[in-house]
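protien #1 (seq + structre)
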Amino acid sequence: MKIPNTSLSLRSRGTLSDGEPLFQDGRYILRGEIEWLLEGDPSEVFQVQQKLGAFADSLSEGLLILNFGNAVGQFTVPLVGRLNVISGKWGDQDFDRMLMDITEMAAGLPFASRLTGAIPYERSALTEDIVLYHAFVYLRYSMSPDAPFSDRLVPAFRSVLSEPHRLFASVRRDRRLFAVSRVDGRTIENIVSMHKAVERAPLGMLRPLANALGGYLPEYVDEPDVVIQIDTPENRLVLFILSGALGIVGRMREILTRGVMSAFRAQLVDQCNEIERSLRPIARNPFWQKIGDVLQVPTGSTVLQQRRGYTQIYRYFIKSRLSACVPLSEKDIVDLLESKDIAQLYELWSYFVLVVEVSKLLGVPSKMDRPNSDEMQISLRWEFETVWPNSTRVLYNPRFSRSRAEARYAYSVPLRPDFAVEVPDGANEGLHLFDAKFRVDRVAGAMAEAEEAEKTEEIKREERAGTFKIADLYKMHTYRDSIPRARSVWALYPGDQFTFFSLTGKVEDVRLVPETLVGVGAVPLVPSEHKHSDLQELLRRLLSC
């Protein structure tokens, strides 16, 4: 495909029938699992390479190979414009949806307190324990035109400015007696009590009242009045959120410009500038000059819960404050949030889904390890652990070593599955392992391929291409055979077919699996389907619930 007004052309490397770039809505859509060739004038090609950084390698002068791997998202590239990289049918919207799911799921889990180990803690709505990078990602999502309209911040702020919440307040004003237009009992009391300065009553004016008061009347009296107030707790909170969003952008830009300006840092700085350009006109509105500082969050306000604009802004505030719960290591931060490694995020998302689904069966965990955090990251150690009162455990990245002295032993080579579920008793007492396999999308097809001849050569081709579909499935057997305590091993994958292989045969309906689970299987798990029915049923049988 020729890029207009340039010497550049873009084509897939290979002969895949679906490997041609698409141009839609002013951007080029590329599949990340395909390698792309960009060719043209060396000076123009060099500009593209500088922007894309690690995703672009030079094959020769004027020829680049673009390899996005598992990265998804939008890239603004000189001369080319916008590139929207997707992975199969998955794009940056799916990435954002998983990130938001992690935020919401983690919000309901009782991470252990820093000081008290296993004791759950209460989160304050105004806690400062928030990771800047996560807050920025959620702000970026909320400012994106790709977000659902109900989640977008800019239209919500505009709704508030066009129809702000107002309160009608009763006040008392001192007004000259002859200018009073409203009278109540307090006004009359003020007149007859003569507590204020008095003056001789003019002839013919209020004479009967003046005669009763000895010929004098008060110069000023207390008159009731009604005023409209916009300095409400709800408007104060909206201003606080608006100022906070601008603060997130400013702090992010400051941190990004401290180090060496990589391609992704430059991309993020551009995003900071774009967000600020959208928010600044809203922040300059004179309306905010009459609004004070927030003193408390009016959590019971029906305005925040029901009124257009306020509801969306309040929902953003709650979710962004809970984003500190997302456990990501420093490497994960770079891989997931900058390059949007959707396969790795799928692994983290799957872990939280697993914990949440176990919680639905066993109740609130009694212990959940707490990540360490600073303004840019939350670090999650290996063997991150969630424990329930009955001693069921779900571990993230547990290590199985060759040392027989270790509780987690593998007799051949050290292994580290994605997740482990330790069942304390019942028919399935023991260890059950799970691996998140984003690259596997059709278990039945992959199994059929594995039965064909020249399996070794096929695996080698997949390794070179970075897909590992067949090797991923073989790895389940490696876990099952090498870890003595492992009773069942499962792949979680974004497909639609449940499959279980036991000693007695193959089952393709989770409701038909045996009571005692020994074997390997695959469980479909897709972010857009929040019910996760197959995983729910499997865990119910696994935990004998």
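ok now protien #2
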Amino acid sequence: MPRLALSSLVLLLGCAPTPEEAPAARGPLGDRLTPGTGGTTEPVLPTLAHADAELVINEVMASNDSTYTTGGDTPDWVEIVNLGPDDAELRYVTIGDRDGNEWTGRGTLSPGEYLLLTTDDLGFSLDADGDGVELKMYRETVDEVRWDDLGRDVSIARTPNLSGRHLTTAWPTPGEPNLDEISPTLDAATESVFRRDMVHRIDFTMDERNRNKIDTRQEKWGKVSMLIDGYQLSAVGLRLKGSASFDTLDGKPAFKVDVNRIVPGTRYRTLKGFNLHNGNVLDPTRARDHISYRLAREAGLMAPRIGWADVYINGEPYGIYIIVEQHDDVMIEANYPGMGDLGMMFEPNESRNGGWGFSDFGTGSAATSWDYEEGPIPPDPDMIAALNRADDLVSQRATDARVEELWEVVDQDSLLSYMAWESVVSHTDGYKAVNNWRVFIHPEGKVHLVPAGAEWTWDYTPDTYRWSGALASWCLDNRGCKRMYSARALEVARLVEEIELAQDFVEVSELIGPSIWADDRSRHSNASVRRTRNSTLDNIRQFPRDVRSDVCDKFPGLDDCAPD
């Protein structure tokens, strides 16, 4: 990260801090403690009065996107704490990196004090791709941290706070006590945005000019500020979205948020943006996206991650929204590490020239008419060739030889799992209706179907062998492909119970319930919410049985169809 212009030394004071007790903020640095300039002045020997000071590196971040700001900048940072009973004279303290850069302080650090040093304070930045921090007192190394690779918004923190080992976590706590445990994964978006245990708060602030610009069906972007869970982004792109769910700012509109649009390079917890769905039309429960996409991921598919937020605009409450991940390079990278800049994502139901496309395989125009949402420019010709070959095969009869040829350009597991998933959740608005779906092409040259628009699910009894989507219908026209799909449908149906999807639905419904009852802008009455919750819960239990019954009627010899 380049050196930043603003100094942001933060000093926090606490008395014998513990993981349960945060140190009290002292505010900006006073005269008593001033950051050094990164100079190499030779320290003198310590005085006896400060011999019992004990400093540790408590936390380090080398790729800060959205954990700590100084005047709008997001610098790397190092946090040290004095654990000893005596003051620590910082003129005897140095912090250095692997390249020999070094910071020397001035003033004192009292017992229990936290000192947060940014790249400007230190005089050097940290390398997320491989670096280290060494803390010395009186010329002797007292603590050090080294890493080979540190992800965006991921820190190395003593866990538990102060006394634990240096562990990597996506739950950073700059200037505050570390948590008692590390995050389950090191994906900052998963661990902070797409969580099933909290409802975020998002505040948008906009002036009248940008409000008028945004409040239109023309999908015009406006500039707003966004405060999300207390973290401020001063310049964010915002526009309205939706078709049947579309609404204006006088009602409850759906939004597309682009944190990268106004200031390129900006990210929030690795995300360039996200969608805010209003649940106006098809999902009074606001939980169907979550359970449907979760089942898709458990079945091995790339599918959007989900969260929830109470949204406010200029202080006015707009009620609860579903945070839905975008089908972009961040999503690709989260599912296929190292492929984020290489994979290609298409939206077939949007035209490359704008507007609705409603296109499909077998038309001879997949690569030229579908909206190319994400991928390298110019497109990889080998990947385009794979898409064109799949498009061409589907226009022909589904012989055994052509099915085998299809698996050379279409990922077999992905196609069968996608079809099985849509059947089990009864995805009324997906590829069964050739509406909400995506196509991803892996750099290795394999085509994948990707779920989208999963709010209209768990509503109508599954029709396991009916498809409007040409690729799925083509597979079902071949006895071998149909049997493979049927076997996979039984596995996904069984997965619903194995991952306790019904219980998951109950738990998230309880979590978001208070926000739903308080949402005065929603089109759904509380009675409608309760009815739909009950019917959805019943269908989560029943639909897998319906799919199993359909499959076993056609293929009674499959393993899951054998009598107990």
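The two ends are 62 Å apart (CA to CA).
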